[in-house]
Specification:
Blueprint lengths: L21 E12 L2 H9 L7 H14 L1 H4 L8 E11 L2 E12 L4 H19 L7 E11 L6 E2 L3
Helix pairs in contact: 2-4
C-alpha cells in the first residue's frame, strides 16, 4: 500500500505521530547552464535585476521554508538551518542546499525545493540576456536520520 493513499485509495497525509524525533539532514544540488554572456553578467555583478547569486541563495532558503505550502503531502517542519553553496562551472552555476531539522520526518523535499527555487530565481534574473538557459541535474546528494538511515549518492 502506498503511504499517501488510504484504504479507499484516497489521498492522505502520512501520520508521523508515532515516529521518533531524530536529527535529520538532507543535501540536494542542481545546475543551471547558460551562455557565456549571461554567466559573465552574473559573475561580474552587472545583471540589471541586481545581485543574482545573493538573491538566489535567499530564494533557496525561502523555498526550503515554504515546501509544505507547495508540495501537497509534505509536513510543515521546524527548520533549524539551511546552508547554500554556489560553485561556478564553465558557463554554469551549481547550487547545493542542505537543510537540517530535529523532527519526525525527512527534509529531502525541502532541500530539493530549495535548489529548484534558487535555480529558477537565477533564470528569472538573467532571462533578459539568455532565454536558452537549462536547469538540470536536480538531485538528492545525501540524507541522514530517521528510520531509513543514511543515504549517499555514489559519485
Amino acid at each position: 500500500m502506498l503511504t499517501h493513499l488510504d484504504e479507499n485509495d484516497r489521498p492522505k497525509m502520512v501520520d508521523v505521530s508515532d515516529k521518533n524525533i531524530t536529527q535529520r539532514v538532507a543535501t540536494a544540488s542542481g545546475i543551471i547552464s547558460m551562455s557565456e554572456e549571461a554567466f559573465k553578467h552574473i559573475k561580474d555583478g552587472t545583471a540589471k535585476k541586481g545581485p543574482v547569486i545573493q538573491t538566489a541563495v535567499v530564494a533557496a532558503i525561502m523555498g526550503a521554508k515554504k515546501t509544505s505550502e507547495l508540495i501537497p503531502m509534505c509536513h510543515p517542519l521546524n527548520i533549524l538551518g539551511v546552508n547554500c553553496d554556489i560553485a561556478e562551472l564553465k558557463n554554469a552555476i551549481k547550487l547545493t542546499v542542505s537543510v537540517k531539522i530535529d523532527g519526525k520526518t525527512g527534509v529531502e523535499m525541502e532541500a530539493l525545493t530549495g535548489v529548484s527555487v534558487g535555480l529558477l530565481t537565477i533564470y528569472d534574473m538573467i532571462k533578459a540576456v539568455d532565454k536558452t538557459m537549462v536547469i538540470s541535474n536536480i538531485m538528492l546528494e545525501s540524507k541522514s536520520g530517521g528510520k531509513s538511515g543514511e543515504y549517499m549518492r555514489s559519485k
